[in-house]
């Protein structure tokens, strides 16, 4: 078993006793283990602390950071606050790569080894991931969460440390995991996810499902798109696409409702004019030539016309 001295995992968690053993076991079984795994127990009230203690005693590269109970589960900014509580315990310069990694995943055994290989093959690749699938609650059939190839997914954000530092890390709001990838491209880095069999992983809690239900999660996503500054026609098109995914129709409508009600209430937006200009130009180009082509055009500018885009 090789031990990877090049990457650190940082895992915020709260009340994950139902899922976390699968996650912990899948990381322990990695062909290339992390040099360190910082797990932040963000005020759990279930058996999470006991399970974390059990694994930390068995593996000296697992370190637990305990935070007080705030009385509720807090997605978005709460998760990122917990992430930074873990990040603050290390010197980031000691690691070539870092990963924000959730505790409701089951990853394949060569997952991190393969991501690092692809990072080494493409020096401008700043962040990457595999693709998440979740089990249908009725049939058990695995369903893709349909994440775009131009994004690394939020539940396993694998970063080149230099890129993470250049983009300023994560924004502490719901759409942090979209803002970061767009900022990567704006700063001259590539973001990517792949649906290769060896990089597909099981997301034990479906993305956007929320602790309060799937529709609440979709509405929250709509607010996140509003906060990020998504161009409204692009939001309508995105919501229409999501209507084809479970929960059919109502999921996309909930996303659109979350966006519109956030706008009607005049909620704050991400205050970065350079980013908004970049985002709108990209989204408008997507509406004309499609997302794949629009992304390729940006990547060719980043790499130069004589370099091949990572696929």
From TrEMBL:
The keyword Phosphoprotein does not apply. InterPro entries: Glyco_trans_2-like, Nucleotide-diphossugar_trans. Residues 10-137 form the Glycosyltransferase 2-like domain. Pfam families: Glycos_transf_2. The keyword NAD does not apply. Keywords: Glycosyltransferase, Transferase. Its EC number is 2.4.1.-. It is an enzyme of class 2 (transferase). One of its GO terms (molecular function) is hexosyltransferase activity. PANTHER family: GLYCOSYLTRANSFERASE (PTHR22916), UDP-GLCNAC:BETAGAL BETA-1,3-N-ACETYLGLUCOSAMINYLTRANSFERASE-LIKE PROTEIN 1 (PTHR22916:SF3). This is Poly-beta-1,6-N-acetyl-D-glucosamine synthase.
